[in-house]
Amino acid sequence: MKEEPVFTIKQTAELTGVSEDTIRYYEKIALLPRAERKDNGHRIYRQDNLETIRLIVCLKKTGMPLEEMRPFLNVSVDADPAQYPELVEQLKSHRAHIAAQIASLQQVVDFIDTKLGDGRLRQPCSAGSETPKGRTFIYK
Predict the structure, then answer these.
(1) What's the gap between Cα 77 and its chain centre?
(2) pLDDT tens digits for 51-79?
(3) How many helices and strands (H and E) does the chain possess?
(4) Is the sign of the CA dihedral 7, 9, 11, 13 positive or negative?
């Protein structure tokens, strides 16, 4: 039987793109289970730990607060979403929030494109923030 590979904290950091300090922090706040230790006290991580860290990174990119991630980290990878309707609803809500942010940012991009295209730099931004009175922006 093949033995499961183990990784040092340095290797885990390199493989996940998360700093060693951040990994320790995730353990401290119990987002990650406490790492197993070698006889010399050094932490060791297994593949499932790496997958959990990668999931945290992914959820973090969506802007989800660490505390809101906890329920997702406790669900098995192959779990049926129908067993977790509250988590499905939470993800749907989070997705809607992200979609609204994207739409808002797209308005800003459209505003900038209009400004750069027509040269009228004092037209108000449709995203709600207007150019302060008396200010003129000059692009060179």
Answers:
(1) 18
(2) 999 999 999 999 999 999 998 888 877 78
(3) 5, 2
(4) positive
Per-residue tokens: 30: 């119990």
89-135 residue pLDDT tens: 999 999 999 999 999 999 999 999 888 887 766 656 665 544 444 44
**Cα(55)–Cα(70) distance, integer angstroms:** 11
d(CA 34, CA 30): 7
Q: What are phi and psi of 107, to 5 degrees?
A: -60, -40
The letter for the amino acid at 74 is N
Residues 6+ apart with CB under 8 A from 15: 7, 50
pTM for the model: 0.71
